[in-house]
Amino acid sequence: MAGEPQDDCLFCKIVAGTIPATIVRETDTTVAFRDINPQAPTHVLVIPKAHHRDAAALAAEAPELAADVLRETQAVADQEKLESYRTVFNTGSGAGQTVWHAHAHVLGGRGLEWPPG
Ligand code: AMP
Ligand code: ZN
Question: For the whole model, what pTM was predicted?
Fold first, then answer.
């Protein structure tokens, strides 16, 4: 069911603490941790603690939680002292989504090309 922890979900395991992560921020509803395969000097993932399969499902099922995630991307940028940064929600395998628990990538600390690849 939407919002419930999923036994086979990597990010639910990070929320539960059964898989380690380098956590940089935590709130009542969100966790932010460093991406294991960073694509920029700062590459942090912000996730809702509750399980929603992607950003679109999160926005539809729990809009206030979606706002919490978005607010936390700015808090990560402030904490990492990023003047410019990019927030990315890969949605669907064709766009590069590999983990089916909604997450925002916060990328910064280098110049970022536009359009992305
Ligand atoms: P996406 O491809 O948008 O679904 O993003 C998933 C991200 O999760 C990728 O950038 C991975 O490098 C990252 N990732 C996968 N496993 C872990 C982990 N155990 N800890 C931190 N980041 C991870
Ligand atoms: Zn999950």
Answer: 0.98
